[in-house]
Design goal:
Layout: E1 37-43, E2 48-52, H1 63-72, E3 77-84, E4 86-87, E5 90-91, H2 93-98, H3 104-113, E6 117-126, E7 129-130, H4 136-178, H5 188-195, H6 201-209, H7 219-223
Antiparallel strand pairs: 1-2, 1-3, 3-6, 4-5, 6-7
C-alpha cells in the first residue's frame, strides 16, 4: 500500500491499556474493552492497509472489512480501533481466531458466514494533520466529526429512496385508491411498465435494493439452508 500522502505511516505501535487496581476518577474518557483484534486502519487516496497490534498486516484475514473501509472511509486518514464479529450472543472472539487461517478459500468462506465489523475509538491522522501528539479529547472530537460526515454520506441515498417512495405513493397509488369511479384506463406510468418489461426493474432496483446496497446478514439467516 502507498501511504506517502499520510502524515502517519505504518508500522505504528498502538497505545495499549495498562493494568490498574482501581478505576481512575476525574476528567477521563472511558472506552469499553472490546473482545476483538486491535487494528489500525491506514486509508490513503486509493487503498487501505489494516495493521495488527503486533504491527503485521491483517487485510488478508478480513477481505470483507477491507472492501467496506475502502468504500466508506474518506481518504487520507488513520484510525485506531478494534475488529470484532458480532453475533446474537454478543461478540465472538473464537470466530475471530478462526480467521487466522493460511488458506484464502477458508478465509473467504468465513467472511461470508460471519462478517466482521470495525469499531473506531481513536484517530491518529486526518488529511495532512498528525494528531498523535494531541490530547485524547481533541482526537476523540476529531473522530466523532469524521464519523458524523461518513454517516451523513450514507444517509443521503436513503433520503433519495424515501423521497422516490413517497412520490410514487402520493401521485400514483394514492390517487388510484382515492378514486370512487371504476378505473377504465391505467395511469401512463403503469401502462409503460406493462408494455416495457425493462422499465419494471427501475422501481424494483431503487425501492428494493436502493442506490447503494447495504448487506446485513443475521446469524439466523446464515444458518438457513
Amino acid at each position: 500500500m502507498r501511504t506517502s500522502r499520510l502524515p502517519v505511516e505504518p508500522p505504528v505501535e498502538p497505545m495499549l491499556a495498562k493494568l490498574a487496581d482501581e478505576l481512575p476518577v476525574g476528567d477521563y474518557l472511558y472506552e469499553p474493552k472490546w473482545d476483538g483484534f486491535r487494528a489500525i486502519v491506514f486509508r490513503s487516496e486509493n487503498d487501505v492497509y489494516v495493521q495488527s497490534r503486533d504491527m503485521r498486516p491483517l487485510d488478508r484475514y478480513f477481505p470483507e472489512l477491507h472492501a467496506i473501509l475502502l468504500e466508506r472511509l474518506p481518504s487520507n486518514i488513520v484510525i485506531d480501533g478494534e475488529i470484532v464479529i458480532a453475533t446474537a450472543r454478543g461478540l465472538d472472539f473464537d470466530a475471530l481466531q478462526l480467521r487466522l487461517h493460511p488458506a484464502a478459500s477458508r478465509v473467504e468462506k468465513l467472511a461470508k458466514e460471519t462478517p466482521s465489523s470495525f469499531i473506531a475509538f481513536d484517530v491518529l491522522a486526518v488529511g495532512a494533520r498528525n494528531l498523535m501528539t494531541e490530547p485524547q479529547a481533541t482526537r476523540r472530537a476529531a473522530l466523532e466529526e469524521l464519523l458524523d460526515k461518513v454517516q451523513r454520506r450514507r444517509q443521503l441515498p436513503t433520503r433519495v429512496i424515501q423521497a422516490f417512495q413517497k412520490t410514487a405513493q402520493d401521485r400514483i397509488i394514492g390517487r388510484l385508491l382515492e378514486r370512487t369511479e371504476p378505473i377504465t384506463r391505467a395511469p401512463l406510468i403503469v401502462r409503460l411498465f406493462d408494455r416495457f418489461a425493462i422499465l419494471r426493474r427501475i422501481p424494483g432496483r431503487f425501492l428494493g435494493l436502493g442506490v447503494r446496497r447495504e448487506r446485513v446478514r443475521s446469524p439466523a439467516a446464515a444458518r438457513r439452508p
